[in-house]
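Our preliminary data section would be incomplete without showing what the modeling component actually yields. Below, a chain of 191 amino acids is followed by its predicted structure, encoded as tokens that our downstream tools consume directly.
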Amino acid sequence: PHPWAIEQLKNNRDKIDWWGLSANPHPWAIEQLKENMRAARAEGVESKINWGWLSSNPHPWVIEQLKNDRSKIRWWMLSSNPHPWVIEQLENNRSKINWRSLSMNPHPWAIEQLKENRDKIYWRNLSANPHPWAIEQLKKNRDKIYWQCLSANPHPWAIEQLRENRSMISWTYLSRNPHPWAIEQLKKNMR
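Predicted structure:
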């Protein structure tokens, strides 16, 4: 949720991807989601919010929505959410853990689960995980790096790999990366 990216959204509202916005914890994004939800309720129509992506959003307002209507929880994406309340839900509902999504969760509890269940690591999503342990695994298993997801990873080591392998950058995924270098690349390559 980089300020420059938010400015682009504000200036191009007609191009907003509501699914992607549903995962964005930036205060401006949350206000847009609230407004959309209110308008949809008033009109008696379905909101543009994607509850799968919203389940991955750690913003406190989102957590309240999930607490208030647990039927909206999408466990496959909730598993990627590092919010403490979510971690408590995952601990108490282990059978609902989605290991693909958990592989991108940087919370220490999630990392412990991955350490104990290495056979369940989904390398594609681990490539997006900025936790130091995840980075160590990627360093040791470079053949398992998934460059598309690494493009979204703000960890300095991931950024260095992208700098050295520019042809491997996924611009779609880089647009999710808040690292200053990623933002500079997006600014330079905007059409």
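The two ends are 20 Å apart (CA to CA). The chain has 15 helices and no strands. Preliminary results of this kind motivate Aim 1 of the renewal.
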